[in-house]
């Protein structure tokens, strides 16, 4: 099962202009009015009763705004970034995970063309292999960012995606993720989760807090962004550009490529 139906693809293509009636803001004072306006946009884009109730229950997340204004680690040098993010531990644990679950990762590579090292490196970088998947309610975080004037255009489709995920039962209003609304083992933004989610265990529900679904969805994302099976992924090689689709920070891209390569040595 995948979420990538025509209706979902149309939703992901929603522009901020469709939410023109919902005025952005830079503090909590206008959030409730924005939610009321945004609910009409959500309804027009197929959000159902559960998603609308989650929107109504969403709270302005000051911790999300604070995190958005204070992203320091991406300004580090590569060496410093890898040290701070625990690259040596990720590589060591990643090798053990690959050895233990090689059949699973081989199956992912056969289906999507993405090698184990890259998937494992992302998993380790994002949540310490699921050790900490966030403490901020996803719906509140992502709607706060959609309301916030700084990057409203970018986050509006992800807010709609989160509400659709509630409708589908993949998350609830109480589901917690990272400060920017990223969710699950590899920290998908909700719109991407909606579009690229894969139910690899066949239970009829895409669950990003299930490791198998999350890793298969990650491989599907990279494949959909143009990953070339068998091509290299270090900086300067063909697939390095696809890692950029996962995270826009150069130092992050370099770290994933290096760790992924080391994990498979």
From TrEMBL:
GO terms for biological process: peptidoglycan catabolic process. Residues 1-22 form the signal peptide. Keywords: Signal. It comes from the Bacteria. GO terms for molecular function: peptidoglycan lytic transglycosylase activity. The keyword Signal applies. The keyword Signal applies. Residues 31-231 form the Transglycosylase SLT domain. This is Lytic murein transglycosylase. It comes from Donghicola mangrovi.
